[in-house]
Design a protein that fits this description.
single chain; 3-stranded antiparallel sheet; alpha+beta
């Protein structure tokens, strides 16, 4: 009877070892080779954006600064100094700031409450 029990235990153990080995990756098979790959949809086609009349075309409708990259500015303005224009609604002025020094280099009075950060005269 011990012999039969020992034999049964060995058979069950061997079967479990075979089943365990079937579930592991072995040889040259990889999970990528066995995985089903889904089709990748084509990227959506970007719809053309109409710019303002008289303005250059919109380079990237998702990037407002797309034309403000190195070698993208017009030669007419490439040597203009960088400036930040900040509207001051409490004092009806616009502060002109040098972004390299963070200093206010000029304060321009406005005809009313300034509401945008565009350069004066635009």
């Amino acid at each position: 009877m011990h012999r039969h029990l020992l034999h049964s235990t060995l058979v069950v153990g061997a079967a479990l070892a075979v089943l365990a080995a079937c579930g592991t990756e072995g040889g040259n098979r990889t999970s990528e080779a066995r995985a089903t790959k889904a089709a990748v949809p084509a990227p959506p086609e970007k719809k053309a954006v109409d710019g303002l009349p008289g303005m250059p075309p919109v380079l990237d409708p998702e990037d407002v600064y797309a034309a403000d990259r190195p070698d993208k500015l017009s030669p007419v303005v490439k040597d203009f100094p960088s400036r930040v224009y900040v509207p001051n609604t409490e004092s009806d002025t616009v502060s002109v700031i040098d972004p390299k020094t963070y200093e206010i280099i000029e304060t321009i009075p406005s005809a009313g409450s300034p509401s945008t950060s565009s350069p004066p005269g635009t």
